[in-house]
Structure prediction request, 829 residues.
Amino acid sequence: MNFISEYAGSSDTLVQFGLWATIGAVSITILLIIYILIFRSYQLLILRANRGFYHHWRPLLAQASFHLPDRLPQLKSKNHVPLLSMWNHYFEIVHGDAHDNLIALAHRIQLDHIARMQLLRHDKKHVLLGILTLGNLKSRQDWPLLNMFVHLDDSNISLVALRALFRIHPERAMHTLLPYLVTRRDFPAPQVATLLKRLPVNEVCPQLILHMGLNVHTASSSLLRYMEACGCSINRQVFSSLIERKPDDHIISVALAMLSDPNAIELITPYVSHKRWHVRVHAARALGKLAKPEHVPYLVQLLSDEQWWVRYRAAQALVSLPFMNQAQLDHIGDELGDRYGLDILRQAMAEQAI
Amino acid sequence: MSEFIKLFEWTFLIYFILLNTGYIGLNLVAVLQIKRYINLLSSHSLPKSLAEMAPPVSIIVPAYNEEPTIISSIHAMLQLDYDEFELVVVNDGSRDDTLEVMIRQFDLHAFPEAVRRRLETEAIKTVYVSRKYPNLRVVDKVNGGKADALNAGINVCRYPLFCVVDADSILQQDSLRQVVQPFIEDPLTVAAGGTIRISNGCTVERGFLSHVDLSRKPLVLLQIAEYLRAFLFGRMGWAPLNALLIISGAFGVFKKEAVILAGGYRRDTVGEDMELVVRLHRVLRTEGKPYRITFVPDPICWTEAPEDLKGLKSQRIRWQRGLAESLSANWSLLFNPRGGAVGWIAFPYMVIFELLGPFLEVAGYLFFISGAVFGFIDEEAAIIFFVAAIGFGLLLSATALLLEEISFHIYPRFRHTLFLILAATLENFGYRQLNSLWRLQGMIRWMLGHKSSWGEIRRVGHGSPETPVREDKHP
Prediction:
């Protein structure tokens, strides 16, 4: 105090400014430290209070994966969110019958009702938790409610809602998702592909091909990528119709990657000399799947390509051809005048040996 | 004359206040960012399958004389919780038995790999593949420094994203999943860094951190308080502006094509991690390409801090040199018409407060001390200067502590909070000033053009006594 009163009386503006700025800074510091201590104490109190809840419910949920307990402890409203979180955690890590047991337990404690309550809250975290739970509960009656969340602009909520719908009824959810494959550019492609992969290839691919036919001018590119991610294959007819539209190089690449029709081989060979290297990469891969002995020279030609990836895929394609044996591969290597081609062929042969 | 002295007095006082206010401002931005992040995090952590289909990642581990720790580090990295990744360990001409122990342990065999040389590096002698772990490859090359080893790793790696991890970094099983998340959310992301925390005092089991605790060493405690104040939340403040200039070399993920476009790691700098990030900004900004460089604030990578003054001094000198080299190599970003927030805010801020800071800070202290001793300034002004510098430093430290408490509070016990408050207070009495002196030395060495190399620092290590570990990484 003496220090402050001594310097507060100074006629020097610098001293006055420095003093009051320091007093302000130190005062805020003291308040912050007091707040930190109170906050930490409060956190510790909550932790202790929740200890009893976790002590009872954690083993119960673990046990419920195998058989349902006879008696359940009373659930307080303050524990609703931690329980939802913990239930979903267990649900995500178990499989098979354990799911049915956890769903049965959830119904006994009215977890579906608790989840619906979360959808009314403003906090996004709670909303997501509610949507996730209803999906995991396969709650068909909540389909319209969840469908409403799919239409929101927030891609995170929208995708989690779609995921819930896929849990409840994958085929029906597929129809909900289809229009968004073209319109929702904000959806991260890997997550959408994950949803699509919940359906068997023979169910998802025909729908995607059909949908592509309806959107030829808008979004063939994104649809093709989803088809590729789902492991779809296309035949000569679909490939030809795509190429007729004079698509960009990326569409050609994806189409080549999915081509699996042995009758389409003569449609592939022109792309061995395409000006874009990624198209040549996919031409090499397609030849690797479909080539006959007379097409081997195309792959040998690609072994000397200027691009590493083209050489690599061509080498992989050669060594994977069912009619190609070690002696033939050695012969190709001996005949190659290009060191890079020989190096990559040796690498592919060594990889196959491993 | 007295007017000049007055001008100096005001300049130094205002500089110190601005410096700390700048940091506090960044912390306030970080508060908003953390709140948003924690909400997002809880939404991501719930549905596990949202992390499915994450892009495959190549983990590049540069290794130089890592014989004592390399095996446990690789074992830990092979256990990372991630769907598809490959591990590329680059042995940069180690003088010890780093390569031999890996060959024995992982059943490595020479492989005729046709390496794609997209970045210039020293010669690769042999590429090995493991018969035990199909996703492990070891590159043995001629010594060329850490940046050269990383470039060789980039040439060899197969996947579109690569993650740089120091061989002595301690990760968490979900570290990779967390740091890749920004690439899933936003395809424009070209780089994402993880938060580096200090592992001294913590328990490490089978290569992973199993128990968090504070070190009992005062110097380490001071560094923990400093990490919170100067590195973690300061940097987090830059991320929302897409103006983050540092991603630690200890743990970061990059889009390979973007790094190759920028020319890979520079081999003539000690701060190759920071330099690459600044260059990515410069190249992508000047070419007008949209991009995002971001930061994952979770404590996902832990590293050992020096426990003695000698090691700490050496580390800080190198960091300052790295900073100077990184900024000076990319001057054209400063006030570049296409520079955006990074060219017009972050870069000038770094130049004024981080690059030139040591000169001004040391000059300020010397000016007021000598002025009071020789009587050319008022004793009152000198005392007020010191009190203000310390007062604002305390405020900054308290703000950082508050952020830690409301966000991650990774130190679980009440006594941890008390120790951190004590350390955050004490670091303003001598530690920060000492740091300024070391950073000044770093600047002088940079101006004199000292050569760089793999640095070594004596550290305690986890489970192995007195292990020499590399130190050339930013936190």
Remarks:
- Chain A touches chain B through 57 residues (CB under 8 Å).
